[in-house]
RNA sequence: GCGCCCGUAGCUCAGCUGGAUAGAGCGUCGGACUUCGAAUCCGCAGGCCGCAGGUUCGAAUCCUGCCGGGCGUACCA
């Protein structure tokens, strides 16, 4: 049973195509025919700009065109109560009220699968996100990236893409040496050896904790070992344990990556060298001042970039090129990178890189996540990684909760900076948008609980008669429920997870309003049955949408 | 200097890749619980969509130039 929007879209498209063909016009590609829900209910349940868009190719008055389109919409009387031509040439469609019930039956039939669809055709996507250096705990900025990447992947999966979530571990290079040495020094310090701790080492308290841990396990075994011999142990220990902590923090935040990819493994397998050779063969490498340069300007970058320094060492960018080459060799159709916006300067060169390696620019999509300003009571909280003064993601999750933190991160466009005030997040807990949504779910569960206690039937093998659903709020609810798949699809195509929380808010707001005006239980039996059936559909959609967001849908709160 | 992002209600932000009279939450003020959960609902107030041009039937949305804020501009990782 096709949904309202689909049926209407289909009908409209056929009419437009017929009209174009009859006018002797070949298929126009870039016709922006849209079917939207007007802001004002007087403008119909749906409206289209089709006639206005056709003004140019047809060279006719939009209102005339509108009438021609309507005349060509076959079978419209089954679905439409009326059609109007309005304003500059909008066509406003008024759906027969009883048709909306199809949406509710459809939701019951699909249940958990309502909202799932096949846009991707099984195409393989990879979403790489967080990828924080394993040199310290995750902070709140990582949390935002984690929420966005995780949910984006969920949404894409819901749309029929085959998606892997990946974390790139920067476990190579000088920083790891520095990390190991930081731990080594803290270790000695914990054993009472006087040390001089350099400014450019990792100063955070977590290193002291880790050092105490080593002392607990190893005692003074490395106290008299020469630094050169001791360092490999400390480097590995620090890297492993910090990464482990990151994994646990992500877990507590509801994020689980499918693949943890080591940068070091690229070096070990010689892939960095191979990548440079591949670029050389493609003619994009030249030498200058003793270094090897990648000609990224050939693809619109501002300047060329060094891949091998004069001292013979490869740059981080070279490893990143190898990494992306590797991604595509793993047969991903599209690769999505979620980066902090402070890395935006790297977009052009990375795009150049994959193009030089033979991929289309559109095969790599980079989402820039703006920074998070952490506040406490309106005042900025100092965030310095070097000095070790920062609030970790874990602390935030412990303080405000996983659900609230995720929801706050997701209820903003990623390219908009975000103020995250801990005090406000806690103080507001009752007015927090996430509780607003969760409350609706709990409320619905409660209604069903009461219904069961009263012996009112509330599970159906056959849909009840839905004709009692005539209240304006009921029609509005059904209309909104019917839009859910469309919202998920748009969210996937635009890579914009924030649309889901906004939709949820709208749906839930409508439900709360409805609930306050009407009783579900205790009405005449047919009415109660129809309303319960609708309520169950609302609950399903809330639960499905929250599921995409990785936010719990509690039955009680 | 150059590049990217952002300027929408007092505050925080949406505005669906050009549509009709620009929305929501918070905050202010005033209302609604003997009845399914008041963590809710209803109402009032609040705007030259940063400024100025341009594109067209139509601009918060697209283009150009300014103003203001953030970030970035390594043979660092």
From TrEMBL:
It catalyses: tRNA(Arg) + L-arginine + ATP = L-arginyl-tRNA(Arg) + AMP + diphosphate. SUPFAM superfamilies: Anticodon-binding domain of a subclass of class I aminoacyl-tRNA synthetases (SSF47323), Arginyl-tRNA synthetase (ArgRS), N-terminal 'additional' domain (SSF55190), Nucleotidylyl transferase (SSF52374). Its EC number is 6.1.1.19. It holds the Pfam family DALR_1. Keywords: Aminoacyl-tRNA synthetase, ATP-binding, Cytoplasm, Ligase, Nucleotide-binding, Protein biosynthesis. Residues 437-557 form the DALR anticodon binding domain. InterPro entries: aa-tRNA-synth_I_CS, Arg-tRNA-ligase, Arg-tRNA-synth_N, Arg-tRNA-synth_N_sf, ArgRS_core, DALR_anticod-bd, Rossmann-like_a/b/a_fold, tRNAsynth_Ia_anticodon-bd. Residues 6-95 form the Arginyl tRNA synthetase N-terminal domain. It comes from the Bacteria. One of its GO terms (molecular function) is ATP binding. It is found in: Cytoplasm. Belongs to the class-I aminoacyl-tRNA synthetase family. Monomer. PANTHER family: ARGININE--TRNA LIGASE, CYTOPLASMIC, ARGINYL-TRNA SYNTHETASE. This is Arginine--tRNA ligase. It comes from Desulfacinum hydrothermale DSM 13146. The lineage of its organism: Bacteria, Pseudomonadati, Thermodesulfobacteriota, Syntrophobacteria, Syntrophobacterales.
